[in-house]
Amino acid sequence: MSSLSGELQLIHSEILECTKCELHKSRTNAVPGEGPYDAKIMFVGEGPGQNEDEQGRPFVGAAGKFLTELLESIGLKRSDVFITNIVKCRPPNNRAPRKSEIEACNPYLQSQIRLINPRILCALGTPAINTLIGDEYSASRFHGKPLTKGEITTLPMYHPAAALYDASLKETLLHDFKILKQLLDKEKTHSPSTPKIAERSGTKQTLEKWV
Ligand code: SF4
User: I need a surface site. Which of 45, 67, 69, 135 has the fewest CB within 10 A?
Assistant: First the structure.
């Protein structure tokens, strides 16, 4: 049974019927995302793969299994977090989503973020990082470095699927999930002090050091 709020359910219904970009033509199922409507942590990946397309659920393949392990490594369950992607329909042959497709789908993602209002947004992989915080960021350079804008902290990470191809990234992801745990603990205790080590000129965003 869904715990999503009515408005979120409405948006998810729209996604299931959406034809705003070419990806609707080849999908089996659109994959809006799932999790509690009031989740403190939201994960945003790149797009559905074959398993996700078949089941209509996010992160249900091998990468999803690893994501569950990563969550358990810091004492969280999959059902504690909201999980979605920057595009809700599977790109054919798992190609990268095109900019036009990401832009067409972005209003859905922004509505999900607005309604769920998470404290921490985990951007999984460079396409999700680019979509959430800008094209100048990448997983390789900014993974594990939280970026706070307003009340939401975005934590860039490698996509769990990357660790399936490069085993060395497994440790990197485990390490970055420890940073996620620190962010969550800080959120719970409402600690006011966060050391700011860099500030991007021209924006209100601040890069914060947690390690
Ligand atoms: S990817 Fe997004 S914009 Fe494109 S058809 Fe699917 S739901 Fe609509």
Answer: 135
